[in-house]
Amino acid sequence: MQVLKKEVSEFELFYDLIFAYAISRIASILFVGADQVLSFKSLGEFLMLTLVFWTIWTYQTVFANRFSIKNKTSALFLFFDMFWVIILAQSINVDFEKTHFTFAGATSILFFSIALQYYLKMRSTEDSVVKKLCSQLAIVLCASGVIGFITIVPWGAYSVRFSVYALAIVITAFFPIVMKKALEDFPTNFGHLTERYNLFTLLLFGEAVIAVANTIIFNEISIGSVLFFLLVVVMFLFYNAVYKSGIDRQKATAGLVLIHAHYFIFVGLGISIVLYENYVEGGINPLFFTLCLAASLIFFLGGTIVNMIIYTKNKHNYLPFISKSVLYFVAWIVVSLLLQDFMAPFLIVNIVFLLFLLYKVKQELK
């Protein structure tokens, strides 16, 4: 089945703005304690909250990619969902238990809203493939919405209710992988999908630039802030190079790898920016920072490179590139550990490493 070509609309971009704001707010829970490290609790909540927003945004994006057209009904759903995303974003708190009622309730309302859109599409079509796809997605969204409402009722310990809520979100987020066959029978408009994810990631880079601004005092510009800005630029160039030259946007595909890889890209970008900001401000333990940064860059760089490999424009053996990149990364970690106490040299090494990896990627894409 072929999907009509479409461009990202101004309504979709308007919708994405609030999600970019929401994901930037999640970074507020990643605060450095008196011991100059991030707690595992805050890291876990960051991963969970990002998954919630990514899941909601992805289900709506996939619906718009396959079915949405410009009409009053679509616009009303869009604006309704935007309002609840605002509530969801404002419910983000370092004490998550305090706002769980609002957060889980808003999540459920959004799941029901998206499920209704899939249901209405199922009722309006005679295509058996579309009916099957819409019914399956509507069912899993409704089930997750019901579970979300159940967890706001004080029937047990909060830790138990939160675990149930988190499990429901994880199942909802990755359930489409189980539906791979049904999704492949009705492939995405891959050009539109890649553009949508690229533009959303661009918004997140905009939030990263704001993080750089937070390290600058109007009458005092430190070398750390300058190097931090250059790091953000190089990370953007790396992602953009793969998007522009490394992905075949004409592929007939369900796009599952692209979709799920971007969760790790968003997480890696978000954590690395928070880490760099705190390092430049001298508020984080250098050793902890280096090790966490390595993990976050694995997420960001790895997710980006996986998309390049899976959706490559030309058949190419990437195994030698992957093997060498692992060695380059290990060498970067070793040098970083040696320079962790010296801010300027450390950040310069980061910039050089990312530029070198960008060069290698461009060589592979020629």
Which helices and strands appear, and what pairs or packs with what?
Layout (H helix, E strand, L loop, with lengths): L9 H17 L13 H27 L5 H19 L5 H29 L3 H24 L6 H21 L1 H6 L4 H24 L9 H24 L9 H25 L5 H25 L8 H21 L3 H23 L1
Helix pairs in contact: 1-2, 1-3, 1-8, 2-4, 2-6, 2-10, 3-4, 4-5, 5-6, 8-9, 8-10, 9-10, 9-11, 9-13, 10-11, 12-13
Organism: Enterococcus ureasiticus
Pfam families: LtrA
InterPro entries: Low_temperature_requirement_A (IPR010640)
Spatial separation of the terminal alpha carbons: 32 Å
Number of H- or I-type helical stretches? 13
Low-confidence stretches: none
Secondary structure: helix percent: over 70%
Total beta strands = 0
Tally of individual domains: 2
SSE topology string = HHHHHHHHHHHHH
| Biggest sheet architecture | none
Provide the β-strand percentage band: under 5%
Summary?
The chain is an all-alpha fold and 366 residues long.
What do these coordinates show?
It comes from Enterococcus ureasiticus. The protein has 13 helices and no strands. With 366 residues, it is an all-alpha fold. The chain folds into 2 domains: 179 residues, no CATH class; 180 residues, no CATH class. Helix 1 runs antiparallel to helix 2, helix 2 packs parallel to helix 4 and helix 8 runs parallel beside helix 10. The radius of gyration is 21 Å and the shape is globular. The model has no long low-confidence stretch (mean pLDDT 86).
